[in-house]
Amino acid sequence: MSDGNYDFALAIGGEAGQGIATPGDTLARIVVRRGLNLSTYNAYQSIIRGGHIFLTVRVSDREVRSHGDKLDMLLALNQDTMNRHLRLLGSGAAAVYNSDTISPGDYADGVQLCPLPVNDLTGSQRSGLNQNTVALGAMMHLLGLDFGLLEASITQQFARKGEDVVNENVRVALAGYTHAQENFTPFPMPMPEGGEPLGVWSGNEALAMGGAAAGVKFYAAYPMSPSTGVLHWMAQNARNLGIMVRQVEDEIGVANMVVGAAHTGARAMCATSGGGFALMTEAIGAAAMMEIPCVFINVQRAGPSTGVPTKTEQGDLWQALGASQGDFERFVVSPKDALDAYNTVPELFNLADKLQCPGIILSDLLISEGRYSINPRDIDFHPNIDRGELITEGTSNGDAYMRYKDTASGVSPRAVPGTEGHVHTVATDEHDEDSMLLSDEFTNPHRRRASVEKRARKFEAAASLIAPPEIEGPANAEVTLVGWGSTAGVIQEAIEQLADRGITANQLPIKWLVPLHADEITAALTSANKFIIVENNYSGQFARYMRSETGLSAYGHIRKYDGEPFAPHHIADGVADLLGREGGVFVPYQEVIV
Amino acid sequence: MTTIQLTARDFKGKIDPDWCPGCGDFGVLNSLQRAAAELGLRPHEIVTVSGIGCSSNLPGYINTYGAHTLHGRSLAFATGVKMANHELTVIATGGDGDGYGIGGNHFTHTARRNVDLTYVVMNNQIYGLTTGQVSPTSRVGQKTKSTPFGSVEYPINPITSAIMNGATYVARGYSGDVRHLTELIKGGIEHQGFALIDIFSPCVTFNLDNTHNFFKERIKKLEDEGHDATDWSAACEKAMVWGDEIYIGKFYHLESEKESLTELEPVLRDGPVAKRTGGLTEEQADRIMQRML
After folding, report:
1. pTM to 2 decimals?
2. Interface ipTM above 0.90
3. What is the CATH number of the domain that holds A18?
4. Which residues in chain A touch residue B18, judged by CB atoms under 8 angstroms apart?
């Protein structure tokens, strides 16, 4: 808690299969119904039972753009969690645990231990089953919340299982609440009321919903963490929304199916992670060559190869930049947060349709699997849909139609199969205006040049169709932080921390990677005092890319590649360190071991 | 509007094939054009989708909507076309390397899904466009540029594979018998479900084993043998025959016992998804919003 604002973080740790999601979801529901903001990050492992899972839930009456730095309350569901994380709690924090099975170790002064003798409290020997619910009750008291809120939430959650189940769960929760009232001191600032009730979504749900709002009518996927949430939302909503959803044999099939459906006139999209994206890349080039608009989402995870499937990274930038052989244009965009991810999908579809080309979204595990509060009234459910120069009306006299007509803009009106009078063939081989292959019998250097230039010409104005990056924060700051995609929120918070330390900083968040606004970036950064590039990878993929496009080299770099996302203080510490030692690379230490 | 009966000539593409003189693929192209005309289809109602290889150049030579896609990916692309607009007649074409080799995964799963399309494979038992390497249907012992001492691998059996994978119309034709092949293709197009027409289409340049003479001496028509195409065991048995006698014709045909993906997919009941324009209705948006709260 700081600045008189409510800013509270709690974490729930245990092993997979212990039901961490349930108390997490219950609390999240209570929080957003009060109209408070929420950001959750779940550190997990590629395991269905066992291992260690650590869910961080941050609640604030202000906008929360990261999962934060500190923990105010720990709920340990097993001894391992206690061993790992109790040491991270500072004065004023509380640790809640089932004292039947878990004992605390060393802890800092001022930490309140909240042991729950679960079997005694519930009058049963089902400690393992009851501990989550007892703990929820105890936490309600610690958070300064009325028990009635939890009762209502439990009643709703278990309503389908019947009155007995509801009553038993309420009884168990009340036992925890009453015990806490008698034995524990609540946090000094009770959880306040916020504004109107909010909803919760994940970045993957936002991407899927963005697709639905953009008019996606064909979605295909092969399950791959951390992108599978998009498939789940699409599959759940397919029939209601009239969207064709297919789970395909592999990502090669996914991508080619998407290109085929897009060619036929449906807005088509797919999502995967780096490994699946690698399999999709030849089809991305095919979409470019055949000039078929479609959207490919890569939810990045730690690589290379199978890598760390449940951990985050920004390691696929160069993969996206170079996806598929040959020399061609594509859009590449990295949304900053879940709402931005939602808004990016229809915008990218409009651009892809306008320029008849592939578009790539680089999300990451942090955005996609994080769950965030959202005011649904802030979501534009009816974004503008612009299909570009699409021919769907037939004519009996279309003999003169040429699919790849060499126009001034490079964009050729696109007829979809089924349209009378516009019969043509699209080809992954190089082709002329009339779809004749220039690859076999009719190779012709001049026609090849004209075809390459026609496709490239479409992109001459591409940068003007999208918003350039802008400096956020104070002008004339001592240091400008440059990040791309999901780091925008955590950098913003780091800037606030730096201000407290007497360092003025601002940031230049980059969303559009291709086309890159090289001129605007150059203008912003040459007028900045010093700039530091922040990214979630080892080699500085964005730093190298930006240098290749602008010639600019950063004063310093903050890089993290341990699989966990940045916390604000990682960046603030890095800036302070780099400013004191003439730049270089700062790699923050990850305190929470998960 | 009066419908004018089109002829095979109306399905002739803008350019002539660049295949070698004597290539079996001419007969396949000819049969496809005849089948389309005889079924009363019109060029804009058909999408011909191919992969890469000599035979995959076919979409350029036929007057229908065409897509000359990536090597091995014709079936995936064609499934996307069919699922976006199931009112179109979708024909996938290609060779044995394209379909049974690099595209083998899609062959398996397109058959399993029983996607309503017709897959015309020009099987010459060799890689032609890359100048003569062993293919998934080359016989054991076959000498090619990549097996100069003879292949030591067994070939795939496209017919039994298709049947096992769930295809509901499985036939084999011979490009030297255009009339017979035309009927097989027509049957495949009319069939609701995945139809495979595997076709002996000799490569006169690189495969000197499986020549026109080789097939002419051996092939027998299943219909002359009184074969019952609804008999699964008989179909598999006949498909395993390879020697002095080789069967062509319709091996297996499940007419209506197994629904196609088009029929099974409820999303298609309101018409082709490609024709649904726009994003969310007010009602849909409201439902999504209520579910989030």
Report:
1. 0.97
2. yes
3. 3.40.920.10
4. 440-441
